[in-house]
Write the structure tokens for this entry.
Amino acid sequence: MVVFDIPYDSVAPGLWLLQKNETEYAEFCSRDDALAHALAEGRRIEAGRCQSRVVLNIEGNDGHWRAFDTSIKPFAS
């Protein structure tokens, strides 16, 4: 399983960190850019490894993390 974490808040003005499997993976200028990259990379991983499941953990403005698949539907475990 591959897990991407997309936080709600930036770590600095204009800097969002994207984590992949609990490791810092990339930096982006916006949350939307981080999410778009995670989606594209997740879909690429799924296409290349038929057995791999990809989860996008997205933090909401309420501080709660929610899990989604690469079609942005709630992740069903």
DSSP finds one helix and five strands in the chain.
